[in-house]
């Protein structure tokens, strides 16, 4: 009986992406009879998931990943292969319904509002472009292809595919599933890093001393619109010549933006912080001095020395993997982020965002720590990671009975 029920579960990968709700409803109709009290009281057992989540860590890959419903871990080569449903005795009808809803939608299409109600307090987009991410089901998200990219030029997809096959870096990134098209738009499907954490602390950190591409600033023409943006941010920033011309170049404006944050000096900037029970803190433009960064990290960690040790160890692991990766010896990693999450039980950190990752010209060598000069393609990723690790390890956490200092986030 169990094997027969499991075999009739819909295949969430092979089914068309525009049919998840219909398949879900059909699955409910097929299994309604299983919820009949007389049948449930019989000797036959129904294949349903257990209620407890299983947490696991693969020592070889070094990534914290979590399983819901006791599913087996897919390999990189078979990441899109569905796993058989587990069995668990004495499950309640509500468990079965939830299991059917999940299996009808996972790895298929963004879940409906009704089915995501239970996740509304757990899933959020911390920073980045609003609307670029959507939860696709428990455990996965869809990320929209960047504007201007196309099937022949999709750096983020290409980078995830390359790193997913890299024995070193696959442990440092979200699990990559596939590229797909839905509703006339293109997406990549990734592991939802928030999945499995309960009311977590979350921090999004943009890495590097340079977060713009060299070809973005190759045009030396001065622009009035960028001058206006600069003046709005800081009326005293333009030089006398720039005030007279009422125009600045793109390079001048981008470097001005980097210098307003901690990126230029420290090689990283804190984009956003989410603390349990509070809305995301994103107004962090002025957090750039070392003491301000340390105060923000202390607020993020609270009094949790366990989390501090776990995060620092994970970041050192990512640094070691990065340095051993052949891929990063030939690519500049511009505008990527470190995504850090912890709750009362778990700690995790991942390298994300590869829309501006580019292969460097043949014969060019990058060490990711050297200062950037036009044409050398250095972006300071490892320079920033060194300083981020030091900041986390040395930040003075509040003692018992005291509160963490509030970082200065004034405009």
Automatic annotation (TrEMBL):
**Alphabetical list of InterPro entries matching this protein:** IPK, IPK_sf
Instruction: Tell me if Glycosyltransferase is a UniProt keyword of this record.
Output: no
- Recorded GO terms, molecular function? inositol hexakisphosphate kinase activity
Q: Could you tell me which residues belong to the region Disordered? A: 71-92
- Assigned keywords, A-Z: Kinase, Transferase
Organism of provenance: Diatraea saccharalis
Signal sequence, start to end: none
Q: What is its EC number?
A: 2.7.-.-
Q: Which PANTHER family does the annotation name?
A: INOSITOL POLYPHOSPHATE KINASE (PTHR12400), KINASE (PTHR12400:SF26)
Gene Ontology terms, cellular component aspect? Answer: cytoplasm; nucleus
Query: Which Gene3D superfamilies has this protein been placed in?
Result: Inositol polyphosphate kinase
What is the recorded name of this protein? Kinase
Q: State the family named in the UniProt similarity comment for this chain.
A: Belongs to the inositol phosphokinase (IPK) family.
Give the UniProt record's GO annotations in the biological process aspect. inositol phosphate biosynthetic process; phosphatidylinositol phosphate biosynthetic process
């Amino acid at each position: 009986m169990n094997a027969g029920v499991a075999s009739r579960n819909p295949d969430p990968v092979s089914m068309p992406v525009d049919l998840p709700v219909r398949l879900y409803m059909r699955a409910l109709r097929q299994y309604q009879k299983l919820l009949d009290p007389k049948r449930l009281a019989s000797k036959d057992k129904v294949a349903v998931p257990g209620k407890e989540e299983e947490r696991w860590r693969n020592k070889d890959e070094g990534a914290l990943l979590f399983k819901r419903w006791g599913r087996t871990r897919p390999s990189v080569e078979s990441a899109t292969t569905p796993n058989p449903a587990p069995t668990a005795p004495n499950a309640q009808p509500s468990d079965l319904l939830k299991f059917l809803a999940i299996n009808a939608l996972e790895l298929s299409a963004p879940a409906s509002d009704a089915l995501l109600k239970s996740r509304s307090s757990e899933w959020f987009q911390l920073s980045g472009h609003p609307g670029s991410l959507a939860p696709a089901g428990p455990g996965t998200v869809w990320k929209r292809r960047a504007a201007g990219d196309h099937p022949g030029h999709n750096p983020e997809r290409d980078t995830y595919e390359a790193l997913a096959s890299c024995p070193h870096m696959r442990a440092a990134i979200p699990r990559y599933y596939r590229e797909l098209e839905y509703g006339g738009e293109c997406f990549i499907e990734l592991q939802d890093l928030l999945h499995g954490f309960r009311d977590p602390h979350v921090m999004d950190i943009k890495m590097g001393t340079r977060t713009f591409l060299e070809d973005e600033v190759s045009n030396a023409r001065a622009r009035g619109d960028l001058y206006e943006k600069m003046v709005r941010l800081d009326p005293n920033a333009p030089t006398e010549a720039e005030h007279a011309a009422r125009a600045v170049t793109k390079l001048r404006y981008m470097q001005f933006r980097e210098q307003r944050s901690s990126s230029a000096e420290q090689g990283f900037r804190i984009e956003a912080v989410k603390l349990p029970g509070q809305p995301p803190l994103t107004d962090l433009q002025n957090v750039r001095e070392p003491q301000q960064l340390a105060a923000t990290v202390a607020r993020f960690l609270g009094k949790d020395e366990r989390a501090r040790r776990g995060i620092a160890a994970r970041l050192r692991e990512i640094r070691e993997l990065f340095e051993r990766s052949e891929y990063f010896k030939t690519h500049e990693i511009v505008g990527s982020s470190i995504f850090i999450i912890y709750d009362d039980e778990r700690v995790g950190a991942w390298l994300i965002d590869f829309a501006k990752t580019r292969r460097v010209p043949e014969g060019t060598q990058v060490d990711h720590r050297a200062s950037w000069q036009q044409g050398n393609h250095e972006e300071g990723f490892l320079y920033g990671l060194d300083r981020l690790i030091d900041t986390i390890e040395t930040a003075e956490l509040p003692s018992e009975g005291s509160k963490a200092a509030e970082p200065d986030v004034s405009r």
